[in-house]
Amino acid sequence: MSDPRTHKSKAAPAPSPQVSSQSPRPSPQAPSPESMGGCLLRLYWMIGGFLIAVLCGVSVVHHQGGFSLVDIVYWAAILGVPAARYADMRHFNGRRADGEPMTLADWKRFSVLVVIAGLIGWVAIHGMRLQGLL
Q1: Could you give the CA distance from residue 98 to residue 77 in angstroms, rounded to a whole number?
Q2: Distances in Å between the alpha carbon of 112 and those of 9, 107, 122?
Q3: Per-residue three-class SS string for the chain
Q4: Which one, out of 52, 65, 82, 105, has a CA that is 20 to 30 A from the CA of 59?
């Protein structure tokens, strides 16, 4: 019996892959490593700010009295969302949903929509509280 370790194959050796003299360059669409601050900032403007506003809205509905500290936190959260998006755009190369770089016009449109939605939500929350609907 022959030892399989010493048995030589008669198959032709596989051609070795050619090594490029240039270092590999990442494609333009390849994601770059993100900093922790940029990641946290995106989490705030995508989820955190709106979650805080919703929780404040629930608190306002069950609150007795007029304007309170909860309203201030609500507006700080709502206004913090466009501020965080602006910082993301300026310092962390923020992008739109389609992957293109965000422009100042995109940020202005986003900010107006967030503030209008926040105002509608705030009026609705206080309206429900005053009417005793919830």
Answers
A1: 26
A2: 72, 9, 15
A3: CCCCCCCCCCCCCCCCCCCCCCCCCCCCCCCCCCCHHHHHHHHHHHHHHHHHHHHHHHHHHCCCCCCCHHHHHHHHHHHHHHHHHHHHHHHCCCECCCCCECCHHHHHHHHHHHHHHHHHHHHHHHHHHHHCCC
A4: 82
Report, in angstroms and rounded to the nearest whole number, the Rg of the chain calculated over CA atoms. 28
- 81-102 pLDDT per residue, tens: 999 999 999 999 889 889 899 9
Q: How far is CA 36 from CA 30, 39, 56, 78, in A?
A: 18, 5, 27, 22
Q: How many residues does the chain have?
A: 134
Per the prediction, the chain carries an average pLDDT of 82
Domain residue spans of the chain? 45-131
